[in-house]
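Records of this kind hold a single protein each, on a pair of labelled lines. Below, a sample record shows both lines together.
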Amino acid sequence: MKALTQQEIEQFVTTFRTHLEGAQLQDVLANDRGLALGFHRGGTYWLILDLVPNTPMMLLFHNQCPFKKASKTKPAALFLNSHGRDLLFQDMWVEQELGRVVKIRLRNSSKECEIEVQLLPRSANLIVKAEGKQIAWEKPQELKPAPHVENPPEPRSLEEIHTEWLAQQNSKQKSSLDPVAQWEKQRQKDIDKKTKALVEIEKQISSDKDQVWAEAGQHLKASGLTDIPEELKNFIDREKSLSWNIENCFAKSKQLHAKKDGARTRLEILSNEIQKLEKARFKERVVKPSLVDLMQKTDARGRKLNLESGAIAYCGKSAVDNLALLRQAKAWDYWLHLRDFPGAHAIIHRQRDQLITEEEFMSVSTWVAKESLGSKGLQIGQKVAVVIVECRFVRPIKGDKLGRVNYHSERTLNFTLR
């Protein structure tokens, strides 16, 4: 969107000055972009002061405020709220000599406040003055007389300006909420960043500085420190010895040549990454349902252990609890038990495609073993084996009150109990 021209600002002031005359300032809303001033007179007129650097805008809306209040306000907004709120709008005019600068005067019988709005592209600002004090939105800069513009463009209508501005706000809001737009923006940002790096690497590869260092070394070997060509003088240190200079020149040449080899490898990698990004297409992320708490679902008693991957390990307090947990487990969950020892069972409850790391298997296996320390013959320092089986391969023995099961397709984890 184009910034307001001088003619458009004058048109705005002339049109809306009468709308605001005598209205009372009752609300001051601020965010990172600027201010929304709520004037009450037969409804609320919202004066929008959009202070974005490139396209500062001044707009007026009746009974609707398209600006959102931020959680943190600005000092200029606090000052205006303290010194300008409840005052009446008296006048608004354009400072013709300075160009796109609008002044607003608020007053009652005992107080006065002046707002200066600088709608200058790349140097937008707002200054509030009251009771001999002033505070600015940005650091104030000295304003120079506005240059004369030959054949200014035809001013847009106020309605057209409002429509353009609202469309831009809606577009930005949609972009901030639309995951596709966010993904595309990030993809383009990554492409631009890698392309910029690619250009720098190509410059490094095309540089002949390694050859110049080698040439300087060859000259020193042949002619010493005499008759050094002008283009090689910056590569020679006169305060150092001949042997040092020769060694330094060839070392620099070798170092730069090695860097070129590394740069070529990096160039190939970057080129492939850019090609992949250019071909990439947005894939919507599927949100997986959270895991059901098996303890709550079965009314079983026992303990549970939360794993880093997000999976949950359960250990029943009794044979009945263990069987209840096993019957509610998913086919892809894991069942763990000590081999050749009676004791605790454990279920690792996970998402269908969720991987459980070896560290997590070891953690749960150790947990199961320690929960079974009451078993006859099991003690710290003993070598133990824990059976790990997907629950689809585990079948409770019908009628067995001890909670025993049959299983197959197991794997075994061996370790020393510590």
